[in-house]
């Protein structure tokens, strides 16, 4: 499967709905979108009511929405998208200055595909959206992948390698720490850019331990070493604990290929945009 086949948006001229009460914010987002995607059609909306009218006027391929609007909130927009005919799988991204707090407390609903922290800026938002529209490879990036099932690991590894990612797979958390230690000492042939780990691992240590030790023992910040945790646990408290411990994001099982690729590539691009100096 090629990268082109993984596009969320089939059209070369996608229609993106931008919902925000601020005219200036809508213009900023529209400007960066048009620079990144010259053929894009942007439907700017200031409220839930305007968003509903835009949905009635035609299909949308992707939606960004503020969390707070004058006549409701972004979750209502997300619900409206899902209730519109043919809109069940459209990515809906909440853009909020409090996105991380809402994510950690698992306040988002099943109607929301993803979130974006407004504090990262509009340039990063453009890269984030483009990741959904046109996933682009990050040449030379290496994923440290921790998964105790060889069958699952082989399938996931193939997905990542199709997008030109180098993947180093280990079965246990202890093996991952050994590789990270060797890298930190300059005696490894690998330079890891992102960690992908299952939450449940065989042995004494789990995915939670991977997150905590990378953040505390290795002192790697979220931008220096992004960590994505795969989990099938629907318990919101447990999901929250992973994010509070230092995971950048979660990938919920069963794994959906487009979302996995989008999330991994976005974390890689974000880390490279900010540089290591901002990751601590």
Automatic annotation (TrEMBL):
Gene3D superfamilies: 3.40.50.2300. InterPro entries: Bact_response_regulator (IPR050595), CheY-like_superfamily (IPR011006), Sig_transdc_resp-reg_receiver (IPR001789). The keyword Phosphoprotein applies. The keyword Phosphoprotein applies. Residues 15-133, 142-268 form the Response regulatory domain. PROSITE patterns: RESPONSE_REGULATORY. One of its GO terms (biological process) is phosphorelay signal transduction system. The modification 4-aspartylphosphate is found at residue 198. SMART domains: REC (SM00448). SUPFAM superfamilies: CheY-like (SSF52172). Keywords: Phosphoprotein. This is Response regulator. It comes from Pseudoxanthomonas composti.
């Amino acid at each position: 499967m090629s990268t082109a086949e993984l596009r969320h948006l089939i059209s070369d001229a996608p229609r993106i709905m931008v919902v925000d009460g601020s005219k200036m914010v809508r213009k900023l987002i529209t400007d960066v979108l048009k620079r990144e995607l010259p053929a894009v059609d942007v439907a700017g909306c200031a409220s839930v009511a305007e968003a509903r009218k835009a949905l009635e006027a035609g299909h949308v391929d992707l939606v960004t929405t503020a969390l707070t609007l004058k006549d409701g909130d972004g979750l209502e927009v997300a619900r409206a998208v899902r209730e519109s005919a043919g809109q069940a799988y459209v990515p809906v991204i909440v853009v909020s200055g409090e996105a991380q707090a809402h994510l950690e407390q698992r306040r988002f609903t099943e109607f929301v595909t993803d979130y974006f922290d407004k504090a990262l800026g509009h340039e990063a938002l453009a890269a984030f959206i483009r990741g959904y529209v046109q996933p682009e490879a990050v040449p030379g990036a290496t994923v440290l992948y921790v998964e105790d099932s060889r069958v699952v690991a082989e399938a996931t590894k193939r997905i990542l390698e199709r997008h030109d990612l180098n993947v180093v797979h280990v079965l246990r958390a202890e093996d991952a720490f050994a590789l990270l230690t060797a890298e930190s000492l300059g005696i490894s042939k690998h330079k890891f850019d992102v960690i992908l780990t299952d939450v449940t691992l065989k042995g004494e240590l789990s995915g939670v331990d991977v997150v905590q030790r990378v953040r505390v023992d290795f002192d790697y910040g979220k931008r220096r070493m992004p960590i994505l945790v795969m989990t099938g646990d629907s318990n919101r408290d447990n999901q929250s604990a992973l994010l509070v411990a230092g995971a950048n994001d979660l990938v919920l099982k069963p794994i959906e290929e487009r979302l996995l690729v989008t999330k991994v590539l976005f974390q890689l691009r974000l880390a490279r945009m900010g540089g290591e100096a901002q990751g601590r």
